[in-house]
Amino acid sequence: MDSNLKAVYAEIEDVEGTPETLTTPILCRVTNFATRQGTLKERNNVQAHYGAQKSLYMGTYSAITLEFDVVGSGTAGTAPPWAALARMCGRAMDIVATTSVTFALASTGHEAGTIGFHMDGELHVMTGCRGSMTVRMGENDHLIAVCEIWGLTVEPTTTALPTPDFSSWLEPLPVTQGNATFSLHGHSGVLTSLELRDAYNVTHRDKPGAKGIHLRGRNPAGTVQIDLPTIGTKNFHQTIKNHATGALSLAVGTVAGNIVTLTCPKTQLINPTFPETDGVIQLSAGLKLLPATAGGDDEFDIVLT
User: Fold this and answer.
1) What pLDDT score was predicted for residue 39?
2) Are 245 and 267 in contact (CB under 8 A)?
3) C-beta neighbour count of 248 within 10 angstroms
4) Is 47 among the domain residues?
5) Is 195 part of any domain?
6) Do residues 248 and 263 touch, judged by C-beta distance below 8 A?
7) Which domain holds residue 276?
8) With 90 as the cut, is the pLDDT of residue 58 above it?
9) d(CA 9, CA 117)
């Protein structure tokens, strides 16, 4: 089988666990795919000789890790082609026609989906899929989302490799001066890298009366690296010492339909270090993404306008 011949499709399910017809192609990189994950039970019976014994699967699932470029649809208020993956990863989608699409974290009502992974004529389907998403950008990079998704395993089939239509996928924009604006705790600093993790706890259950993939809690976090400002400009040493919280915002893009804004209204900086990049002293710190209101579910929004 040729490792260059692959395709990925994803759909939100109307009925959880019931496979959807796969028509939406995902322009992505698959960094991990595994079937028959789960608990193996060793038999460990007495025997009159040395040697291994058969293990039995006690319920299994499949897992896939996808990376894709975070881009808009090209039209404000129209969902992007990666919307199904974000919704599988515990994000509720809210559309304001002709204006915006917002993906917010959710504590209830998590949607499930179907993912199809074609590998040179072999189709692997996962149903009831849920997972967790990370958005990141490295130095001299663009916005990338990483989705680690679990799903119930459907037996693979021999299926002709389709020809995906990626015409709805825009090219990503580099996170550079002129393309992006950044703010951390009120300081419009020079951003080197950023990672924001939803950090959902993904679980698998297979018991009499219950079978599925579920999201059980989350602990959103991340890391940020910026040019270290002078104390007179912004005293981040004091900010961290005092456990102060503040907002983080990164907006990428200038043309309506392809503006992506990451907003975290209440962040705490922890564990600072001071590396160097391009001969410039940096502040690198962990991030705790905290609920900003009593209702919660507002730690980290992805807004497309």
Assistant:
1) 87
2) yes
3) 22
4) no
5) yes
6) yes
7) 6-42+57-304
8) no
9) 7
